[in-house]
Amino acid sequence: MEAITTASAYLFSVQGLFLIVIGTALGITMGAIPGLTGAMLIALTLPLTFGMDPVNAFILLISMYVGAVSGGLITATLLRMPGTPASIMTTLDGYPMARAGKPGRALGLGITASFVGGCISWLFLISLSAPIAKYSTKLGPFDFFSLVLLALVLIASIGGKSISRSFFSASLGVFASLPGIDKATGNLRLTFGFDELNGGLKLLPVLIGMFAISQIILDLCRIGETITVIPVKRKREMLFKLKDWKDQSFNLLRSSVIGTWIGILPGIGANIGSVTAYSAAKSMATPEEREQFGKGSEIGIVAAESANNATIGGSLIPLISLGIPGSVIDAILLGGLLIHGLQPGPLLFQQNPEMVYTIMGSMIVANIFMFFFMVFAVRYLARLASVPRSMLMPVILVFCIVGSFALSTRMFDVWTMLFFGLLGFAFERIKIPLAPFVIGFILAPIAEENLLMGLMASNGSYLPIIQRPVSLIFVVASIALLAIPLYKRYRLK
Amino acid sequence: MLKIAGHFLIVFLILLAGFQYSKIGSGSGESFPQRPVRVVVPFNPGGGTDTYARILQKAIKDNDLMPQPLVIVNKPGGGATIGSNYVKDARNDGYTLLCLHEALMTSHATGQSMYGAEAFEAVAATGEMGQVVLVANESLFATMNDLMETAKAEPETLKFGVNLGTPTHFSGIQLENTLPGARFRLVTTGGGANRLAALMGGHLDAAIFSVGELIRFRGNGLRALAYLGESRLDAIPEIPTAKELGYPVYSSNLQYWWLPKGTDPEIIDYMASVLKQAMETDYVLERSKELEILPRTILGDELAERIESKTKLFSLMKTEQRVDLPDVTVWTIAAICVFGAMVLGKIVFGKRTISENAKEGRMRYDLAFGTVGMCLVYVLLMGLGVLPFVWATIAFIVASGLYLTSCDKRKLVYVFEVAFTMSFGLHYVFTVLFTIQLP
Fold first, then answer.
1. Do A222 and B363 touch (CB under 8 A)?
2. What is the dotted CATH code of the domain comprising B35-128+253-316?
3. What ipTM score was computed for the predicted complex, to two decimals?
4. Which of these CATH numbers, 3.60.21.10, 3.30.750.200, 3.40.190.10, 3.40.47.10, describes B129-252?
5. pLDDT digit string (tens) for B271-284?
């Protein structure tokens, strides 16, 4: 109880509130600029917090986390460029809806869904930290492998019209994740003699290339057309009406719970959370509603945005209860805790309870501030995108280049980004979906590592994949997801 | 009126920024260091090495041990080979240091990298971290003896968590070597947190952790069987050493500081003395205690000896693969071929649908690829070091802006404003606020 008082004293002091405002606003702005992500902002801010009180430092960092995951929806909706990887799924419906003349509505749905997603996951965070922590250690390597399998099947089934094209794209994505150190032997593979490839292709340059650069090239091709960056006029249409709450409440709850749950699982964060919730929403929709997916579905936007914000609360659970990061950003936050001499885990609850409550408290306060800031400032943030196209494109190109370069200060990442930009453009031209490529690229290393770990533990036997109950559930679900559409198509013929 | 004032303001800011910029990089003299010294940390920010390097960085700055600051540069990936390779090829003027522990030697021994310690000048080794063997609380193995005897009685059944190619891997093999016939089933687990989760979930029987990790994870239902050091550690006096129990394995790791081969010995000695002084500051002593790192410093001949003996030890060990693992590369290429064939088949034999492209207006491929071409030239100029970031960016934005607006005179002013504010602004944000070096 005393710790809660201390934590609120920190949070609601002038300094605490100032840090929340700064952190959230910076996070949203960074999130809204393609090529600059929350992970980068937080990684770059971390050294600046060394001189700060650890509690204040974490108020700032958690606010940035909340802001960055939320801010991505602005450019995802208005420019079809996910500002952060977390809002890939928002581009599918947010952009078509904005193009159809309802940008305010699209943004409003996203913002409110983000807010509700954050709140619901926060409830899980404060109530489930301890019991969930116990459960997550029970998942073994084969369970993770099957989970990734399931996620790949999910993405392939929503990636586009053709499952074979989606799988082709996904397998190319897996291939792009292979260069670097072979996890089984420790030797280098597929580096073709380039020392820069020793660490493999980095996520961010590939992502910026695939989504941002390919879109820039496409936009440049259409520069003669009227600009598709959509102005947002009325503020009123951004708020939920009573009918919306009634229509979307179940979707909000389901997507937030999925997001929270995905967040809890180590390694996968906001992007997978929103992918999974989006697929779930699509598969549970009525045929008329499903027709709308990819063309500006309200359900799709709400599912994607509530889930990605819900992963924040979810991924903080293993971070503070076990010291195990639930996503890339959490890995940086873990480093931050250690730098400040704090040991996350059950010990943190005993020794620094005020830290635990500060993390929990700043998440909800930042979430509330994020909502108001986004509603009032989104029109101005969106102006970032309504600069004349001929001016905007070179500027975004420079941002992408600097962002890729700053990751590990080398030109190689910039070349990687440009290469994948051209590749993504080519994919778009021949109608191969981009999302499975990126998902395959992100998940393959996780799958590979867990498969090898499992095989080394089982002495080379693959049987545990179907012997372990959790893994079996994932495998059966994947097969079902693949078999049902095929069976339906067969019956239609 | 406002507009004109706005233009003036921007011009003023540009001049100011240009003035600030011109000051950077001037000045020369004789004594080292004349400018900030970069420390390459080949891991992500927040990792053990990064944390440690930043502790020393702060100690050096706060105690004025050097006239110029240390700047930490993270170059993660490739089992630390990206960062080490970068420093290996850097100019040997003393301004680029590498901070990397014994992974430099182990990755050479496993064949991950083509070079080891011999490719560098060792400056100092600082801060010793011990290793421990852990089991879960409810484990059947009460003592180290139980564990080793089981490994001998039922070889290759005990799941023993290590990180392949790193010092933990070698500790595992060293343990096996102390008892003829004992074999673990070595399981790679990645970093310490993953290993902890696997151990607690019952997916491993035992695992190697650093002492720092033991302290951090203590209270999570873990039990230490042995400490792999020469004598018991003050912080964990109740844990016996493996040597006491009859398994003489000493495995500890230090953060080594390396300079490129051929660096002036005076600079090496200077950096060594700075690091030694930093290690003796109260701040380092205090933080070391918190992180359970012994504040030890090894220099000179002792350092050379340690590197030589460690390199020899690692090179003698066999790190062959023990389980048949699938070749992921082959499987992936097979999948690409299968799905590619399916897609091709559909295109060739499938029903033709009316091309949607017909609906689209005239595509200006010329503009797109013209701009992309300029972009490639821009990156190339920076990559080759022909132009620094600021001038290259101004040139790129002006050129592409004029190209895209077809030299519209009304937009000329904006093009230049955007070019100047972007280049100087970004340069300021990254180099001054974030201390990231731009090309």
1. yes
2. 3.40.190.150
3. 0.75
4. 3.40.190.10
5. 999 999 999 999 99
